[in-house]
Amino acid sequence: MALRWARDARHVQLLVLTLLLAVNLVAVDFGANLAAAAVASAAALLTQAACSQLVGLPRIEWRSALIAALSLTLLLRGDALWVHALAAMVAISAKFLVRIRGKHIFNPSAFGIAVLIFATDHAWVSPGQWGNSLWFATLLALLASWVLYASRRTDITLFYLVAHCGLLLGRAWWLGDPISIPLNQLQNGSLLLFAFFMISDPRTIPDARLGRLVFAILVAVAAHWIAFHWQFRPALYAALIGLSPLIPLIDRMFPAARFEWRHPAEQEGTQPC
Amino acid sequence: MLTPNRVAIAVFLLLLPASAAQAFCGFYVAQADSKLFNKASKVVIAHQSKSLGDHDIAITMASDYEGDPREFAVVVPVPTFIERKQIGVVEIATINHLDAYTAPRLVEYHDGDPCYVPEDRAYAKGMATTSSPKAMAMPERYRGVTVEATYEVGEYDVSILAAKESDGLVNWLTDNRYRLPEGAPAVLGSYIKQNMRFFIAKVNLDRMQAQGQSFLRPLQVRYHSTKFMIPIRLGTLNANGPQDLIAFVLSPRGRVETTNYQTVALPTGMSLPLYVKQDFGAFYKAMFERAVAQKDMRAVFMEYGWDMAWCDPCAANPLKNSELVELGVRWIDSDEPKAFRGSRGDFPGVYVTRLHIRYDSEHFPEDLMMQETANRENFQGRYALINPWRGEAKCKAGDSYFDGLPDRYNREADTLADLTGWDRAVIKAKMEQNGQPFESQRASGMDQFFRRIFE
User: Fold this and answer.
1) Model confidence pLDDT, tens digit, residues A252-270
2) What are the extents of the domains in chain A?
3) How many CB atoms lie within 10 A of CB B93?
């Protein structure tokens, strides 16, 4: 039963995100709080329900909505609770409104973060607040690698991390900086959350492996440029959202089968025999 | 920091002293003097974000340099060319005032008569809480170095240098009698590739004497840039161990934090044994050091974050509009020399964040990348002393009050031990010597016995 439950990567993601929230509440405070989590979750579920009703979906996909809400809680900071509610609404409704050939283009939580930061004066992200103690990075990596194992198509996580590391190391080498500088930049919880939970969202990334590789490199280069040239702090989300409209193009250049959440074994089980 | 013939003080901060007592939410009795920390420098940054990636910054640097002014020099990387009108000197008193105003504070309460009804529990609530920029031709030895401008600013001679490679710059600095610490060429090279320029100042003794200055005033530089950061890398090159930097960031929007290091609030709001009043500085220093150790020296500590329109309790008189303007706050509605009480109309207010950083190159390899947030929650490092009722209290409530005191004292001892790492037994012995005994002091004997019967 438990195995069957864990086969859906979303369940594992939900578990990991909830664990991270718990860690934030009891051990390492990186700024998330329960009220924001509750507000974001409620807003996400309500939006998901309303949109499902409007487009006539047979059931409400509560897991994706909750994952988006928890990601927002962990990453986005606001000076009032409505910031979290609005971010969740924007994130979920974009899934239904911004679609090309039946596929939504933006990762919901990254889109919610980007819209709130650009459109209001009340939201920000605090990448430094995760702390860079090595144990925490390791913990995150371990938990997240579990998700990596459980989900499919998450090769993009590795593509992204390798590209990101490569760029940071390359920059340090060019500047003549000690290795401790890129290491300090890498030991950052929000980078791991971004790589493991956001850019890896199988519903929005390119369908073909080569497409995912190209996309990961493009996002890493853009994020690097935004961070160091523009000195814009939420560089990761800005890069991902800014480049997401290219995905349909990448899918056209490298065609492959569309991702579906249900596990093949499960699908088989549902077929009449 | 560069040193040698001229000691180049490359970077920053100090801590401040105190005075003045005021009563409101507890009597303010002491503050953690910034002079507690050796090798500390102070930086005041007035920061306003004009638009995405456009920061309006005034950075004022005060060092604790006390040696021969002839040996003093500053080398600070700056992200853009600096004109004469963008440089000034600021009175140290203004920075000291801001330091005193934002310093961690000790407040004191007195328990009321426990037999008095209604009982005063007020403390329980308050607790929680000039020359033109002409390039000069350079010999081959200084290849790539351009002295873009030289200025006379108060007692300082200032040069703005641009460089294309570190070798030429190192030669130029060395030949101009700046002794560079080991590792400086690599750091300078990194800044050069990031298109930074160098703000270099040394003292002009003749002008200093002519102006009757007996000490060095803080230098201020104002500029627009995409970069909002505090350069600390040159400062970490001195091998003399960790240094302290206190950064006061004034912003119209809200709290400021570092994005490449964790910013954490120091523990606050605790009540402490009464004897701490005798040496609040020692307590604060021990607490800070323990907090640094607990974070493995990898965090930036927030000591104060508050809307400057008010304070409670005030550790010093509010800053004047004119003082804020002197520190680079150009967005308020007045520069009159009267206390700042907030801006009127559409003018933004002023929020101050005080950050305390203990850093060295191992734990802080990168410069501090800063970010302004919309967070306007108020925070202050504040510690309380609660004096027990010393009079008579011959009533039931009085008995339970006195019976409860030892528990309270125990909690205070535990708090102090947790915060500082000091030995519990020593703490308790000092408390007993200072009128905080661990046995109930309620009235006893026949008098007590009969009173109880008749009640």
Assistant:
1) 898 877 776 554 444 333 3
2) 2-258
3) 10
